[in-house]
Design brief:
4 domains, about 40% helix, 8-stranded antiparallel sheet, 6-stranded antiparallel sheet, 23 helices, alpha+beta
Amino acid sequence: MSRQQKEPTWPFLCILACLFVLSAAAPRAWEKSIRTHDPHPSEKAISETETCDDGIQVVAYAEEVSDDSSSDQVPEDYCPTISLIAPAPVEPLSTAGTDGFVVVAPSPRIGQQASEAITADTAGGEESAGVELLELLPALPTEEDTFSPDVEAMPPAEESESGAEMESELPADGEAGLEAHTEMEPSVAVDDAAEVADDRDMSAVDGVSVLSQEDVAGLAAENSRTRENADRSVSASIIEALEPLKWDCETGRWAHDVTEAVTRASAELLAGLPAAKQSVARLSVLGRDGVALAKQREETESHRPLARVLMMLHRRVQVWEQLAALQEGRQNQPEPVDWQQVRHAVVQMKDLTAGAENGSAWGSFLELDALAQIVERGESGLSSDYRTLVQYVILKLQVEDVSEEQRTFLESQDVANFKRALKTIAAEPVDAAAWLTSQENLERTGSRDAAEHLAVERLKLSVSNLPAQVELARRIEELYCDSNVRIAVTGYLLNRLLPDREPEYQWVRDTVLGHPVRGRSTTIAEVGVALVPDAQRMRAALTVDGIVSASTSSTAGPATFFNGSETEYSAVKELELTAAGIRFRPAEVTVDNRMWLRQVRTEFDGVPLLSSLAQSVARSQHEANRPAIRREMNRKVQSQAERQIDEEIDARLGELNDRLQKRLLNPLAAMSLRPEVIEAQTTEARLAMKLRLAGPSHLASNTPRPWAPSDSVLSFQVHQSALNNVLCGLRLDGATLTIKELRDRIATSFNRPELLEETTENDDVSIAFAENDAARIDFEDGRVAVSLAISRLRADNRQWRDFRVCAYYRPEMSGQSATLVRDGVVELIGPMRMASQIALRGIFSKTFAKGRELPIVPQEITADPRLRGLQVTQVHADDGWFALAIGPERIEPAVANSAGPATVK
């Protein structure tokens, strides 16, 4: 029986032992390789220290700190490496010392965390209670200092021979009694037990300023608030967006400075420190530097992320600047409420409305009974809900969609006094921390809840009686409620779309100067559109230039006159395009008539002598009556042209307005969405209008609108907020509907009865939508993302819970057509098993079918022969905007998703 050969196992054991040793040492090595060169102590950089009697830690910095608001100066040639890019540190507040040192008082909480993270090695190897450790950090670099990105992090003192060299760099008068401390980043912590006799007496250490107990306590309190508030990450989104820019040698220094300044400013705002104003001003300066940097890098890959960061920075500076101003003086402190005056205003308004014809309706509209209860309770009974009701009533008084009679009442002096009294109740202090958090939530998530919360808070501030709060509301509206729809069209395209008019032939049966006129007429007219330049409105004029040629006969007594005439007329009908439709005025017509006598017949023709006499008399009378005949014919042609143009054009424009009202404006009004004109302009070549489609509790666009090609004849841009506000109006959040019920709701909301006739095999599928963001559309990275958040879905006796489905569409264009084509697979987000994924993909792959193209340009436009020679020149979906442009045909068509030429139109 052969014995199986045994293989040695000791090599494997050795390998395992080596791996164990390496794994144990790896964290320490990695820590050294990624350590930052930041000269300020972070939470993990503060070594284990002892505290004084009041629990205050004391840290000393070598040399003086620059007064510049930028805490960490970086040289111009800064180019980041892996060891230099680190999370934005929170800088400690400091007080300058006398001999080049600064005494800093971080919070006890930070010191406790640091002591848990880093183990201190003292000279004696033991910790001594009541002994204070001083951590010396290198001086803050100034603008003249140089900084080498290749310098490695300093090793621990006990592991490196460079400890003595580092100590020798300290001020000579501060060397005594200071020993090397463990795990120095660019700093050395020392054990000063031999020199420090008392926790509050630092005079034993030369070069360190002495602070009183009150100064130290105050400094510690400020620093504690700054540190703790910095942890709330109210600027996380912009810091994350800045991170890629730190890796670019051209933008790295700027991105580093902005990160530091944003972190500092947000922390100071949260802490309510006066220094916040200076820190925000520093951010504003950095923003201007960033704009200059972006202009230099327009043709580089970093321009787009840099531009995006600049917009994020601009929005924060605008809001933070006003928040910092509110923290000064009494700008954020409402005046005490004069309840007697408010009570008098409410009673006076009740008496005023009680005697009116619609007094009960006005009383209900103004919530007068509820307001009477509030003023009776007084200050002690003024809850947050009651204050919100008062703010709501003030907003009602500012409604614009009212009749003239209602407007007269709302603009009366009695209502003005009533509103002024209510504003004293509505005002409340602004919580800077809450506003910072709200802004960050919106910037980071873009969710409907975050937008609605910020919009409501803006409305509350807009009715305040404090000017600084009203200014903050105005800035929020300017930054986050900008126009989200823009359309521009050229007069050239409008003229091409006008129908050609065929010549009109008519019999003439009329009376001129009391004499019957009979004959035939031919009318040839050309219709055009002329733009009327206006800096604030979209105005145009419909022009009609025509010629009426007529051949007529008229009998007067014994003579019959045969006339020829040619009447030229020009008609102008002014139009104005508004958010409510097309407004038009009556046509104005000017006429110029030319008439000539072709022949005269009399009853005496053929009678010698009398024939020539009768002809001469008839012609003389006709010539004498020619001015009167001409005036009457001009009046008749003018009247007929005005009547015909008004009847024809008014009917067509009225039909267009009715269709616009039924298909768009009425459904939007039912959703509390009324298009508001933000800007309108008419030039000699183009009409342009910017609209905001949002309700009172909605926001609009907050990103730069894409540019249209300069040669476009039609351009259209829509922000995702406009579409999401419409989806919000469908009230899908938290709703449970079958597919058929969902289709019925959409058909009813948008007045599209044809959708009611459609049926699908999935009509019995039941969908319970999530409470928030049930349906959402996003335009990002060249794609259109359609997502549904579903709480529960039931189909074929099966159900799935808590997931989000997302389908992406890529815009494509070809000639005059543009379509959306599904791009990639349907994404399912949420915890589920593989079997559930397969089933759900089967369902939603039919809903978002890959082979189904969704037309962007209606077929009526693509098939219109009048648009021959034009094509889609831009289809662009990015940064929240979807852009479409039509222009002249090009030899090399533009690529889909291209931003187009850099000319705004």
